[in-house]
Recover the amino acids of this structure.
């Protein structure tokens, strides 16, 4: 479907008189401590999603750049892995400090490249800084089996070692935050890194390289620019990469798993989500409204844990619809340079905009009632109104990830039916339940098949707690001390004495 067909020109967007005026980072690969040109001539246009105009072009690397980066990472690994945890922690803390000192620049770069409103960009960069600080501390401690004689006259102990060279592939929705979630625990555990940012949003990762180049020895952090089919696939198939960590779609996760299987490479996958918001008949509707207002539309719904699927007790439907539509209509579509308390940014690029617009139209064709929004406009940027749809139970939009500012509402009469609806999805990343009853909270939390379950809130996501999915949302823990396990290997030493 062409762009023109999607343009409705009926929705209003708060425009800024000027775009962020920023010096862009160096637009090259970074391999073995050197800014490195591409061996091939391919390039990719990075687009400003708020206006649909090109920002710049990046080179697309390929097998040759990945080979060079893997070689550099392998060469750097023994010395980096041999440093003490306290020494590596010092480096991570310095990285946190320099990122914090450049927070405004990073926020604006993320705003320019992703269209993020200031509050979202600020939250991202705060999260990045906190991630480096957390892992600097957490990596100096850990749980292990106590050393001792588990076989007579033989003492056993565990060494926790780096996995070695980690290939990382990151998405466009939280470009620097998802990179930090991977880089910080990996470096802390003594691994070295070959990272491919999303070709759509490489700018903050490249700025990270510039800010940290003097803090990290050559080869410890390498960045290769490219797309999934080229560099992504070269990383997942590479025989000298010891682990591949991906945050992205289920489609990319399956492809990376297949590639890694050729070399029995360890895989760490954080994939999509479809988070239910189960509203029991005793729920506090103000809490539900606050949660959906915030978590349903954060980052324009381009959030794997978005509160995008309300499943409400039928007795509450009318009241809930009134409250939620009143709250959500306070959002204002606005360019990232506009300071607004309740601004919502654009979608990331044209193809994704068309997917979201089609998902809305198809749901309406199947009988969804538009309670709010529903319109879209790509005449200048990729804008979709905050949209709330009342849909028939189990409508396809309730199962599949829309990844836009679209929340669906279904109803149930019996709680078991509500839980069954919530679990009826291929995804298992996060979900929430709203109830005033402690027993219901505990029992339903146990029944929900999601890696994170929130009660009376949605998307509580502290750095200290693991973020990881069940089912097709993947496996592998980001954040928390569990990530340190995922980015290390255990070796049992047994000594007969
Ligand atoms: P995507 O899968 O299109 O791309 C993610 C990354 O994978 C990009 O760098 C891309 O170039 C690369 N890639 C694509 N195909 C590949 C392949 N065949 N081999 C190797 N690499 C490949 O995802 P996206 O559109 O950038 O991000 C949105 C998706 O990410 C959503 O599904 C979202 O739910 C998911 N996500 C999950 C989490 C989480 O923590 N679970 C967090 C953020 C985003």
């Amino acid at each position: 479907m062409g762009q023109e067909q999607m343009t409705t020109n009926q929705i209003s967007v708060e425009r800024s008189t000027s775009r962020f005026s920023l010096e862009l980072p160096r637009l090259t690969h970074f391999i073995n401590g050197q800014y490195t040109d591409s061996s091939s001539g391919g390039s990719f246009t990075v687009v400003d999603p708020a206006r649909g105009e090109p920002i710049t072009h990046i080179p697309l690397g390929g097998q040759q750049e990945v080979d060079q980066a893997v070689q550099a990472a392998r060469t750097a690994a023994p010395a980096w892995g041999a440093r003490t945890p306290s020494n590596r922690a010092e480096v991570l803390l310095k990285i946190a400090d320099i990122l914090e000192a450049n927070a405004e620049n990073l926020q604006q770069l993320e705003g320019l490249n992703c269209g993020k409103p200031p509050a979202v960009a600020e939250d991202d960069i705060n999260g990045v800084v906190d991630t480096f600080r957390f892992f600097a501390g957490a990596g100096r401690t850990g749980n292990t089996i106590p050393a001792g004689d588990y076989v007579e006259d033989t003492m056993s102990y565990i060494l926790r070692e780096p996995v070695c060279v980690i290939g990382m592939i990151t998405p466009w929705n939280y470009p620097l935050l998802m990179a930090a979630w991977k880089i910080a625990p990996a470096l802390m555990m003594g691994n070295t890194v070959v990272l491919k940012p999303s070709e759509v949003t490489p700018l903050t990762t490249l700025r990270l390289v510039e800010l940290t180049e003097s803090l990290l020895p050559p080869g410890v952090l390498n960045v290769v620019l490219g797309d999934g089919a080229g560099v992504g696939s070269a990383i997942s198939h590479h025989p000298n990469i010891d682990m591949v960590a991906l945050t992205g779609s289920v489609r990319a996760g399956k492809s990376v798993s297949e590639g890694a299987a050729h070399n029995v490479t360890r895989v760490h996958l954080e994939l999509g989500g479809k988070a239910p918001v189960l509203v029991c008949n005793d729920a506090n509707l103000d809490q539900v409204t606050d949660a959906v207002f915030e978590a349903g539309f954060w980052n324009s719904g381009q959030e794997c844990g978005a509160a995008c699927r309300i499943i409400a007790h039928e007795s509450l439907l009318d009241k809930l619809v009134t409250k939620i539509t009143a709250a959500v209509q306070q959002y204002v579509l606005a360019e990232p340079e506009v300071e607004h308390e309740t601004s919502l940014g654009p979608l990331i690029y044209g193809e994704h905009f068309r997917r979201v617009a089609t998902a809305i139209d198809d749901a309406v064709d199947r009988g969804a009632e538009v309670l709010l929004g529903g319109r879209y406009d790509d005449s200048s940027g990729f804008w979709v109104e905050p949209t709330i749809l009342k849909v028939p139970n189990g409508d396809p939009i309730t199962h599949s990830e829309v990844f836009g500012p679209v929340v669906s509402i279904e109803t149930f009469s019996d709680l078991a039916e509500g839980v069954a609806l919530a679990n009826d999805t291929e995804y298992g990343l996060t979900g929430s339940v709203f109830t005033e009853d402690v027993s219901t909270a505990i029992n339903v939390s146990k029944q929900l098949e999601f890696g994170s379950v929130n009660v009376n809130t949605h998307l509580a996501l502290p750095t200290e707690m693991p973020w990881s999915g069940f089912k097709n949302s993947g496996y592998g823990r980001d954040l928390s001390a569990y990530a340190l396990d995922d980015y290390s290997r255990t070796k049992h030493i047994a000594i007969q004495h």
Q: What stands out?
A: The radius of gyration is 23 Å. The pocket of nicotinamide-adenine-dinucleotide is lined by residues 169-174, 178, 196, 198-199, 227-228, 232-233, 236, 246-249, 252, 255-256, 270-273, 304, 401, 403, 429, 467, 469 (CB under 6 Å). The longest strand covers residues 154-162. Residues 235 and 288 are 42 Å apart (CA to CA).
